[in-house]
Structure to design on (656 residues):
């Protein structure tokens, strides 16, 4: 047999298993499916396809490829291995030989064993590849704790992350931040959110970005746009804490930015910081941890060394930052603990199944408690996780002061006023505290709630730009004379009405800072109630995913069969046997058998002029007297009327 003159000749000599290896290692060659070997070889030697392939080969393959590309002449396989082992050492010979075989399997090197050639784009890209360290780095982790301990610690972080997202979105339901003209969250609003949530910058940024990625938060696209929860958020609230966490974790896996690296000057919710490489690198870090036994972790240096070897063309500053951020964020989110994947995190990384992940984390989550302890200093201690409904109501009445296994809340005039603004009254607040508390409600707390509720709404604010109305003229006079409010530009219209040059939000904030208790009223004089669930915007719709798509293995098998059929169709000559005197029932029977076995057939077909043509087709669907099939001659999907089919036979019958 003569030597192959090109990659196409080389591929024609390969069997189905070798073609499957090529398509598996280079999935970009599968979509769309090439019509024949020539088309496959042409696509495999294009620059973009070679770049994608090189981005996924390890340092040893890259170095062996550079040894083969060091000269324009063809090289013997033994010469290539010898050049590599001269640098790495004799003990690397077997590994270098396997690397050379892999390069041939990937179509980056082609030819006979004594005359191997490198495809041109690869030759130009790997000239200066550095040799990898020998021995090659391996994923050998160290135990960091028992599986149960890791799962328990991760579950604690998972529950905290769910609570933080819920607190964020409930807060933004009441006071949504504005959207910049260029998109994104204003820096001032980011700082206010950090303060009100009681979280540091990375944790706040994590909650904001993950909520947005999970489609729980969006721009409402109104005339004065704001960042508000979506209608999907209300559905998310009805799910169990485990399922809520699984949705957040899945959204984080696909996040194209690193929220934990945020600073007070970072622009959040802005697409300018998106990097498509980040989810790929994040998955590589987590997949590496998934290779370790349960309960084992790997230090940062080990992860960097292994990933730099496995993907040397992706090594650099971005990979370093993604590794550090992934380890930090996964710990914060509860995917890992102490550097090891928890059971739920492992299920998420290996299967991408949110149901399985939720079931795994559910086993380690601490059960909800139904009570709190109210102390005399107006603090409330929740000794464990509260049910979502109770948490949201309590979070409305009190501010979180500290988090952990026990959460400490503090009730203040500000927090009670927030609940009143949301439509709660003094009786509702008293009933909530009495129902949840295991201890009697302290008398000072009762007085505080009643006092704030009595004053709430006695002063009304509306739009002029803004106006202030109060039934008590003495209060109006006091507000007008208060030197702390002179920047508001107040002037009296009547004994009970003031007009301001400031807008309503500024009026509300300054009056409350001065010790008054204003409430917003509508144009008809009714107090405006801002319920958290009232402010929603439609969630962005995702592209539907078909669940009936064939697995990648089945798809590659079909592509290989199509390649063989395309080659046979390109070389078939002469008349087709047994293409006449076939009844419609016989035609339908052959077509159905071909569809079940996913094999091509020769088809004789009469056009509208009565001219009979022949073509090789892959039957796809048959029904209503119409055949839908892939035509190898035109490389398109066509429809054929079964009544016009003059004959049909298996492609293999022609070759035989």
């Amino acid at each position: 047999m003569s030597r192959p003159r090109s990659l196409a000749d080389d591929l024609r000599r390969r069997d189905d298993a070798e073609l499957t290896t090529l398509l598996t290692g280079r999935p970009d060659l599968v979509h769309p499916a090439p019509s024949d070997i020539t088309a496959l070889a042409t696509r495999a030697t294009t620059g973009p396809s070679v770049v994608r392939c090189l981005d996924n080969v390890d340092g040893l393959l890259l170095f062996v490829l550079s040894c083969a590309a060091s000269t324009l002449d063809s090289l013997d396989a033994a010469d290539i291995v010898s050049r590599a082992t001269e640098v790495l050492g004799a003990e690397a010979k077997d590994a270098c030989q396997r690397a050379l075989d892999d390069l041939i399997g990937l179509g980056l090197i082609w030819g006979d064993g004594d005359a191997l050639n490198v495809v041109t784009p690869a030759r130009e890209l790997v000239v200066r590849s550095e040799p990898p360290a020998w021995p090659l780095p391996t994923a050998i982790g160290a135990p960091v704790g028992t599986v149960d301990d890791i799962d328990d610690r991760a579950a604690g972080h998972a529950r905290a992350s769910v609570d933080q997202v819920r607190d964020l979105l409930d807060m933004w339901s009441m006071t949504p931040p504005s959207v910049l003209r260029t998109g994104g969250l204003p820096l001032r609003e980011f700082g206010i959110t950090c303060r009100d949530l009681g979280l540091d910058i990375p944790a706040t940024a994590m909650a904001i970005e993950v909520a947005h990625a999970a489609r729980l938060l969006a721009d409402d696209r109104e005339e004065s746009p704001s960042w508000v929860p979506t209608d999907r958020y209300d559905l998310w609230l009805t799910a169990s804490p485990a399922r809520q966490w699984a949705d957040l974790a899945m959204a984080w896996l696909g996040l194209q930015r690193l929220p934990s690296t945020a600073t007070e000057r970072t622009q959040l919710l802005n697409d300018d910081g998106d990097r498509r490489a980040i989810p790929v690198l994040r998955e590589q870090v987590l997949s590496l941890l998934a290779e370790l036994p349960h309960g084992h972790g790997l230090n940062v240096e080990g992860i960097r060394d292994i990933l730099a070897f496995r993907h040397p063309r992706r090594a650099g500053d971005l990979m370093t930052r993604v590794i550090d951020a992934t380890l930090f964020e996964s710990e914060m989110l509860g995917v890992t603990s102490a550097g090891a994947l928890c059971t739920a995190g492992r299920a998420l990384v290996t299967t991408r199944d949110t149901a399985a992940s939720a079931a795994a984390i559910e086993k380690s989550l601490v059960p909800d408690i139904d009570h709190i302890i109210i102390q005399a200093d107006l603090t409330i201690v929740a000794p464990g996780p509260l049910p979502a409904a109770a948490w949201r109501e309590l979070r409305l009445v009190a501010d979180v002061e500290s988090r952990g296994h026990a959460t400490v809340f503090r009730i203040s005039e500000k927090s009670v006023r927030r609940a009143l603004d949301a439509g709660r009254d003094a009786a509702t607040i008293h009933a909530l505290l009495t129902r949840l508390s295991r201890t009697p409600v302290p008398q000072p707390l009762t007085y505080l709630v009643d006092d704030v509720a009595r004053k709430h709404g006695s002063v009304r604010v509306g739009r002029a730009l803004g106006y202030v109305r109060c039934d008590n003229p003495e209060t109006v006079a006091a507000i007008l004379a208060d030197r702390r409010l002179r920047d508001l530009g107040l002037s009296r219209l009547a004994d009970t009405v003031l007009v301001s040059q400031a807008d309503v939000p500024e009026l509300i904030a300054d009056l409350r800072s001065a010790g008054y208790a204003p409430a917003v009223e509508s144009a008809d004089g009714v107090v405006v109630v801002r319920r958290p669930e009232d402010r929603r915007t439609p969630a962005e719709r995702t592209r539907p995913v078909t669940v009936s798509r064939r697995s990648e293995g089945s798809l590659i098998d079909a592509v290989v069969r199509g390649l063989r059929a395309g080659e046979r169709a390109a070389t078939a000559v002469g008349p087709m046997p047994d293409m006449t005197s076939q009844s419609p029932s016989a035609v339908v029977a052959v077509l159905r058998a071909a569809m079940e076995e996913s094999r091509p057939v020769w088809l004789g077909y009469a056009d509208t002029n009565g001219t009979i043509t022949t073509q090789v087709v892959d039957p796809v669907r048959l029904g209503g007297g119409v055949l839908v099939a892939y035509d190898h001659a035109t490389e398109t999907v066509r429809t054929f009327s079964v009544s016009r089919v003059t004959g049909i036979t298996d492609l293999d019958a022609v070759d035989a």
